């Protein structure tokens, strides 16, 4: 009867019956890990629930930039946007508020050749749809120095802050956000960036904020 069931031999190991089987259909999962599934099965395999650092995620954040002592900053084909070339290339904008980060992004300072240090903010495409579109090769973003931009759905101001860098002092960003929680963060960003006009209103009802918006050339 045992041979008909595909069981070749039974042996006792540490008080648990270990059975050799002929096919995968005869395998019974006792809830243990891959290694030692019979021996010590209540505790699982050796380290299987944790793995190597799996709960804490991989090393470094998505879109992060590995630091290096030597970096080169080159103009991107989009006016007002730059490429920081190091161990890994990254998008960046020239920081309008030197020494300040908006969402914990990295900053890079380089000598412009005349002894003056210029600071750039790395633009994370994993936190900005506009940056992701640029990385994907969007033909034209229509946002450049001097642009007057109406930005709907500004959230906490992550992308808006980079648009602020791009349009510069001669441009303006009308940033509309419906959420009051995100709107508070947006207001804090605008306090240090005079070219951002924060508007906490529902973008679907422009009549509620039309008096706050002047002429603009680009709608995003």
TrEMBL record:
UniProt-listed SUPFAM superfamilies: S-adenosyl-L-methionine-dependent methyltransferases
Reactions catalysed, as given in the entry: L-glutaminyl-[histone H2A] + S-adenosyl-L-methionine = N(5)-methyl-L-glutaminyl-[histone H2A] + S-adenosyl-L-homocysteine + H(+)
Domain of life: Eukaryota
Keywords: Methyltransferase, Nucleus, Ribonucleoprotein, RNA-binding, rRNA processing, S-adenosyl-L-methionine, Transferase
GO molecular function, one term: rRNA methyltransferase activity
Main location class: nucleus
Keyword Transcription regulation among UniProt keywords: no
Disordered: region residues: 23-69
A single Gene Ontology CC term: small-subunit processome
UniProt record, GO biological process: box C/D sno(s)RNA 3'-end processing
Subcellular location: Nucleus, Nucleolus
Protein's UniProt keywords contain rRNA processing: yes
PROSITE patterns in UniProt: FIBRILLARIN (PS00566)
Biased composition (Gly residues): 42-67
Cross-referenced InterPro entries: Fibrillarin, Fibrillarin_CS, SAM-dependent_MTases_sf
Family: Belongs to the methyltransferase superfamily. Fibrillarin family.
Protein name: rRNA 2'-O-methyltransferase fibrillarin
């Amino acid at each position: 009867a045992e041979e008909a069931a595909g069981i070749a031999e039974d042996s006792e190991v540490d008080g648990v019956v270990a059975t050799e089987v002929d096919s995968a259909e005869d395998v019974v999962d006792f809830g243990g890990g891959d290694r030692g599934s019979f021996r010590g099965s209540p505790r699982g395999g050796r380290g299987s629930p944790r793995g190597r650092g799996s709960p804490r995620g991989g090393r470094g954040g998505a879109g992060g930039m590995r630091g290096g002592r030597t970096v080169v900053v080159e103009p991107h084909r989009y006016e007002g946007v730059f490429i920081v070339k190091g161990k890994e290339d990254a998008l960046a904008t020239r920081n309008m508020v030197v020494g300040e980060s908006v969402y914990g992004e990295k900053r890079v300072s380089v000598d412009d050749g005349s002894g003056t240090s210029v600071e750039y903010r790395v633009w994370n495409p994993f936190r900005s749809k506009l940056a992701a579109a640029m990385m994907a090769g969007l033909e034209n973003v229509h946002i450049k120095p001097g642009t007057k931009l109406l930005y709907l759905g500004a959230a906490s101001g992550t992308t808006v802050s980079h648009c602020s860098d791009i349009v510069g002092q001669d441009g303006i960003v009308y940033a509309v956000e419906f959420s009051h929680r995100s709107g508070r963060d947006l207001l804090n960003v605008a306090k240090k960036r005079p070219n951002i006009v924060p508007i906490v209103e529902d973008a679907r009802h422009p009549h509620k904020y039309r008096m706050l918006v002047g002429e603009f050339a680009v709608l995003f």
